Amino acid sequence: MKLCRYNDDFVGLVIDGCLHDVTPALAALPVWRHPLPKHDPLIANLARLRAALEEEAGRSPPIPLDRVTLLSPVANPGKLIAAPVNYRKHLEEVLADKQIHHGNLINEIHRAGLFLKATSSLVGPGEGVRLVHTDRRNDHEVELAVVIGRQGRNIKAADALGYVAGYCIGLDMTIRGPEERSYRKSPDSYSVLGPWLVTPDEIPDPSKLQLSIRVNGEVRQDANTEDFVVDVPGLIEMASSFYTLHPGDVIYTGTPQGVGPVKPGDVMVASIERIGSMTVAVSAA
Q1: Where does the pLDDT of residue 103 fall: very low under 50, low under 70, confident under 90, or very high at 90 and above?
Q2: Which residue from 136, 61, 64 is spatially nearest to 99, judged by alpha carbons?
C-alpha cells in the first residue's frame, strides 16, 4: 500500500500511478482533546484502518498525480531522527573534503550516534526546499526514511522490522559550516519526506534498495542500501536504546557518497527502488 497526503491535508492511496482519495475513511480515527498524543494518530491506527482505506480507494475515481501537491505522508511526527555518515564511502568523502567537514570532528556512526532534526523542518516534495543562508554551501542528501508504526523502547534488532509502518524517500538538506549538525539541518523545509509511505509488505528487505538523486538531470548520488554501516534494524535498536519510539517517528538512515550543493532554481529528482521518485524544486526562502 502506498499512502500519501496531498493538497489541504487530504489522504490518498496511490494505485497504478494514480491517486485515489480515501479521506472519508479517516472518520474512524479517535477524536483527541488536550493533551494531544505524542504520536501521529493515522500512523498509529494504519493497520486497523487498512481495509477501510482500500475499500474507500475502490470507490474513489483516479486523480493524476501531477494535479496535486504532495505533502509529507506523516503529518505529526514526534521526532525526526537522523543517522550521520552511515555509508563507508560517504565517511571517506566527508573526511577528505574540508568544504563538507569545516574542521568538525567526524566520527563513524558507532561513535557519533544519532542526532535529531526539528519537526518544523518537515515538508513534502510538492512544497519544495527553501534555502536559507545562501551565502554558504547548501547540500542535498538523499536517504531511505523509516516511519515507526508502534511504540517501543530498547527494541532488539531481531524484532525491529516489526515496528515499521513503512518507508519513504527522505532528503536531509544541509547547510555546511562549523555548527552542530542539528542546527544546520533544521531550517524550515530542510527535511523532505515523500512522495508517499510504502508499507513493509512491498519492501521485504530495506537493506537492498538502489537510491539516487539527480540535480537538473545530472546524477549526483547513486548507491545501494546494502552499503549501510548500520542497517535499518540496527538503527532502530540504536534509536530505541536512547528514546521511546512512537508511531510516526521518522528515522533518516544516512546518505551515500556524492553529496553536493544546490542553489535556487535547481530541481532535484530523488528515487528509491520499490518506492518511486519525487521531484523537489529549490528556491530561496
Answers
A1: low
A2: 136
Q: What percent of the chain has pLDDT over 70?
A: 95
Check whether 105 has a pLDDT greater than 80.
no
**What are the residue ranges of CATH 3.90.850.10 in the chain?**
80-284
Residue 110, C-alpha cell as written in the block: 558507532
Would you say residue 52 has pLDDT above 80? yes
CA distance 266 to 128: 11
Residues 6+ apart with CB under 8 A from 236: 146, 148, 155, 157, 160, 161, 163, 164, 245, 251
Does residue 236 register a pLDDT over 90?
yes
Q: Which residues pair with 70 in a beta bridge?
A: 6
Question: What are the backbone angles phi and psi of residue 86, rounded to the nearest 5°?
Answer: -100, 15
Tell me, what DSSP letter sits at residue 118?
A: -
Give pLDDT, residue 92: 75
CB atoms within 10 A of CB 236: 28
* C-alpha cell at position 285: 526562502
CATH of 80-284, one of 3.90.850.10, 3.40.50.300, 3.40.109.40, 3.40.50.150: 3.90.850.10
Pairing of the two strands 18-21 and 10-15: antiparallel
258 near 239, Cβ under 8 Å? no
Write down the pLDDT at residue 188.
98
The DSSP secondary-structure symbol of 36 reads P
Give SS3 for 65. Answer: helix
C-alpha cell at 194: 515523500
Model's pTM, two decimal places? 0.95
Q: What are the residues whose beta carbons fall under 8 Å from the beta carbon of 282, sequence distance 6 or more?
A: 128, 129, 131, 262, 263, 264, 265, 266, 267, 268
